[in-house]
Fold this sequence. Notes:
By secondary structure, the chain is α/β, with parallel strands linked by helices. Helix content is about 40%, strand content about 15%. The protein has helices at about 10-20, 60, 70-85, 95-105, 120-135, 150-155, 190-210, 235-245, 300-305, 320-335, 335-360, 400-410, 430-450, and strands at about 40, 45-50, 55, 115, 140-145, 175, 215-220, 250-255, 275-280, 290-295, 365-370, 370-375, 410-415, 415, 420-425. Strand 5 (about 140-145), helix 6 (about 150-155) and strand 6 form a beta-alpha-beta unit. The model has no long low-confidence stretch (mean pLDDT about 95).
Amino acid sequence: MTPQGTPDPTAGAAVKAADRAHVFHSWSAQGLIDPLAVAGAEGSYFWDYEGNRYLDFTSGLVFTNIGYQHPKVVAAIQEQAATMTTFAPAFAVEARSEAARLIASHTPGDLDKIFFTNGGAEAVENAIRMARLHTGRHKVLSAYRSYHGGTHTAINLTGDPRRWASDSGSAGVVRFWAPFLYRSPFHATTEAEECERALRHLEDTLVFEGAATVAAIILESVPGTAGIMTPPPGYLPGVRALCDKYGIVLVLDEVMAGFGRTGKWFALEHYDVVPDLLTFAKGVNSGYVPLGGVAISAKIAETFEHRPFPGGLTYSGHPLACAAAVATIQVMEEEGIVEQAAHIGRAVLEPGLREIAERHPSVGEVRGSGVFWALELVRSKETREPLVPYNATGADNAPMAAFGAACKKNGLWPFINMNRTHVVPPCNVTEAEAKEGLAVLDEALTVADRHTV
């Protein structure tokens, strides 16, 4: 790793050349991308081989909840590698057992059994398989404006454009509109109206689909990439009640929102709801080694007490990944990282972003909690027309591309999706770092303002 602040353009050029010759990148037209060669990272920052340092307001892909290169987690991975680098999943291994115990100590209700996967998409795949086998039903309801992963079942449950190219396996998947007051599909004007109408729409969908054919409803507790639309009070408990009424499994996807991101261990804690299955990944070990999983309720675990669960992964509960999870959760507990995320959101991000919104005509709405925020960028605050069209590419996306370039020019790496910029730094970002990022956002938004009417 190139030491911070020590430029080495020759090494960077070699890394870039090898990447362009051999690496096939996800979600990309290969000939149209220009990936940055990264030399190193620490805490809330990373830097390139030219000596440019960036404050990471993306947390990677919203997974470095404790920042880059936390020494205690790095040491735990090194110690585990020295004692047991890997072992098959059918055995009881200390790192795996302890990771499961610690995760279960923070999950709500009786979600005490942990099925480990390599990431969030596989967690969703297996959660849906469990729900279908538990109920003997096949249909699954998922929301528009959602993302559940890139594997076969997960991508077909997804409600954003990344599904479109692979939309060939959606048999049994039914989509519905979840609440989003700023762009209400229900013509609501208050959170109470949005909640009531969204629940009525969901129950109508269940009735007309045949509730007795529905195995599960899957929702992100707080949708992530699709826009960080925090649900109105009462909505998630209302979905829980509908699931109980019709014998449906409730799956809450906490892959992005979990492990401190919203200022709680899990986002569902804001809404006083307990699902039957909870999927997680990303923040469970800050992405240091790939890991995900499903937290399973007692009644669903009982289904497989004497009946084999037909699913498994070669690297399920990989010792290195689990050692990283153990260390990460211990760091979060010892250093008060969940509390820090809540504090930064309350004291710095929310007031700072709302002040920014007042100054910029391009900011239509600010929403979020903890270190999980979105700015909805618009051409007009009155009409709420998005700054760029839905799923815009090329010239249509020029205003957002220009905004992103302005952020990077001043040392901030932004998370941009469609007409939004998300503010998702590490959960242990400092007040000074958060304010530094807000200052860059404030200046960069003058570029977006030029495209308002």
